[in-house]
Design a protein that fits this description.
Layout lengths: L1 H10 L3 H7 L3 H13 L4 H10 L6 E7 L6 H9 L6 E7 L5 H13 L3 E5 L6 H11 L4 E4 L5 E2 L3 H11 L5 E9 L5 E5 L6 H4 L9 E4 H6 L11 H9 L6 E12 L6 H24 L10
Parallel strand pairs: 1-2, 1-4, 2-3, 6-9
Antiparallel strand pairs: 4-8, 5-9, 6-7, 6-8
Helix pairs in contact: 11-12
């Protein structure tokens, strides 16, 4: 329901909505620019898929540690991709609630590109993620949050750039936020590759595709940075390539709802602490003096 209502917002705009959009510069930009000029059309997508001989393929990794009914938003956004060459690999804790388990099994039954692996007692989430990467035959890999939404043409836009610009090893796009009603807000129009900015914050975000060879080259994911993989991974990967590209299109929506709990705040602090540790290690590894501080 959430995802269908989001698509409806893009395709049908009544007079009341237009009146609201006039008060919101970002949604006015979506209506007047993004929908008209910043997206590929259906004919272009069909032609690319039918006439291109060598397709980039994508592995999307999601870890599920707790009951999360919002996973359907993420899964629907992947299933509805206009570009078909992807694989979704879900690694779930055995302790997740039955309703979440049913959601996972339902989606795995829908599409053979979706695979579920339940975490073994003698293994860690990071080791299972690494095993999925090592066994994957896909060209590019990303770590996706379990609540977030891909634009319907997200993977196509990535694939088109990767096909046209050979040799890219790391690629990212712009993003915004989306609420439980499907309203988009708070856009982040990122700069092109900026090594200095990455040392200040993880500006490239969560939806970053890495060529599988570079992830293997740097030793895969590190278990001590499990909740901060999306920062530790690029900090290490960019030391081994200059082939980094930014797509100036909003292709990823970070899901935000009004339910901010004490436990989620504690989780955010843990992630921040690990991000600081990853950055401090990066300075040491590169022979740079400095102390990482929070602002």
């Amino acid at each position: 329901v959430f995802f269908l209502s989001y698509l409806a917002k893009l395709s049908t705009i009544n007079s009341e909505t237009v009146s609201q959009l006039e008060l919101d510069p970002y949604n006015r930009w979506i209506l007047n620019f993004e929908a008209k000029y910043n997206r590929s059309n259906a004919q272009e997508i069909e032609s690319f898929i039918n006439n291109t001989k060598s397709f980039p393929s994508f592995l999307i990794l999601i870890s599920v540690e707790s009951s999360n009914l919002s996973l359907t938003n993420t899964f629907n956004s992947i299933l509805n991709q206009s570009y078909p060459f992807w694989e979704l690999y879900i690694i779930a804790e055995n302790s997740i609630a039955k309703d979440t388990n049913r959601i996972l099994e339902k989606y795995a039954a829908k599409d053979k590109r979706i695979k579920i692996k339940f975490l073994r007692k003698d293994n860690t989430m990071t080791s299972e993620l690494n095993l999925a990467i090592e066994n994957s035959k896909n060209d590019y890999i990303t770590l996706l949050e379990g609540n977030d939404i891909l634009d319907q043409d997200c993977l196509f836009e990535f694939a088109k750039v990767l096909f046209e610009r050979k040799g890219i090893e790391i690629i990212y796009s712009d993003e915004d936020k989306i609420d439980e009603k499907g309203n988009r807000f708070d856009p982040y129009f990122k700069p092109d590759w900026s090594p200095e900015l990455l040392l200040s914050n993880n500006y490239i975000g969560n939806l970053v595709f890495y060529h599988n060879t570079i992830v293997t080259k740097i030793g895969l994911l590190r278990s001590e940075f499990y909740t901060a993989h999306t920062y530790d991974l690029p900090l290490r990967a960019v030391e081994h390539t200059k082939n980094i590209y930014h797509i100036p299109k909003v292709l990823y929506h970070v899901y935000k709802n009004s339910d901010t709990t004490i436990s989620s705040l504690k989780d955010n602090q843990l992630i921040l602490d690990l991000q600081k540790k990853a950055l401090q290690e990066t300075l040491t590894r590169r022979g740079l003096s400095g102390t990482v501080l929070s602002t």
